[in-house]
Write a structure and sequence with these properties.
6-stranded mixed sheet, 12 strands
């Protein structure tokens, strides 16, 4: 199983986003590509279709005055069968007026049912609330002990305390962090600098959070070797994509 998660920052730099996804395609095509803060874009959708994907979207924010959409998009190989989709809106941050969403896709891949959870969570002062609501929604719709479940996306865990809360709650719920353990960040603060100047500004390099995560349950990890990578030099967003490969271990 191969999965890429990428917060594309309202699809502002589509050519760069496509180049970043292409850099992963040149290795081995992911089974799933999960995008957050996706703004409907014909160029990106055409690209995914030409690469052999189908996709589902969930709109969780629309501001009419600004014509501003925020969607989750989950693309899946066309030989994977979509069985069902479950969505919910998390609108808990009254301070910031945020609305964020979660989309669960129930699929059949190579004769095996599994669930892919695409996440964009709000920023909260009481961080455990959003994580608990997410876990509750996942458990309600996946039967997470019986089938492989992958949870990925932008968790908006903007400080170390919330990082630790997230990992502990996920572990207590039967999900393991499969992001690289030694790499500490996936979010920087200025996409314009990263896109136009093609490098990370030394000052902004000091301002970093690990917002983007991938978790998997024990059923997904059973007899699997794990390879994951944060793509730190990606362009097109202030978030670094996270890539995961699970491969069956030799007997």
């Amino acid at each position: 199983m191969k999965l890429l998660t990428f917060n594309v920052k309202l699809s502002t730099y589509v050519d760069e986003i496509i180049a970043t996804i292409d850099s992963v395609m040149n290795g081995d095509q992911p089974d799933y590509i999960c995008l957050q803060e996706y703004q409907p874009n014909k160029q990106l959708e055409k690209y995914l279709t030409e690469k052999g994907y189908r996709y589902s979207t969930f709109e969780y924010l629309f501001k009419e005055r600004k014509q501003w959409h925020q969607n989750l998009l989950t693309a899946y190989r066309k030989d994977i069968d979509l069985l069902n989709t479950y969505t919910t809106i998390l609108n808990e941050s009254k301070l910031l007026g945020e609305t964020k969403g979660v989309m669960i896709m129930e699929v059949n891949r190579d004769g095996q049912k599994e669930f892919v959870v695409n996440v964009h969570l709000p920023i909260l002062r009481k961080d455990t609330v959003k994580f608990e609501d997410l876990i509750g929604f996942v458990n309600e719709n996946t039967g997470s002990l019986n089938y492989p479940v992958y949870i990925c996306g932008d968790f908006n865990s903007v400080r170390k305390k919330s990082h630790d809360m997230l990992v502990k709650l996920m572990e207590d719920s039967g999900f393991k962090n499969v992001c690289p353990s030694k790499e500490t960040f996936s979010y920087l603060t200025n996409s314009e600098i990263r896109t136009e100047r093609k490098h990370i500004d030394p000052i902004l390099d000091k301002i970093k959070f690990k917002n983007d995560w991938i978790f998997a349950n024990l059923k997904a990890l059973e007899n699997m070797s794990v390879y994951s990578q944060i793509l730190h030099n990606a362009l097109g967003s202030d978030h670094d994509p996270v890539y995961l490969e699970l491969e069956k271990q030799a007997a």
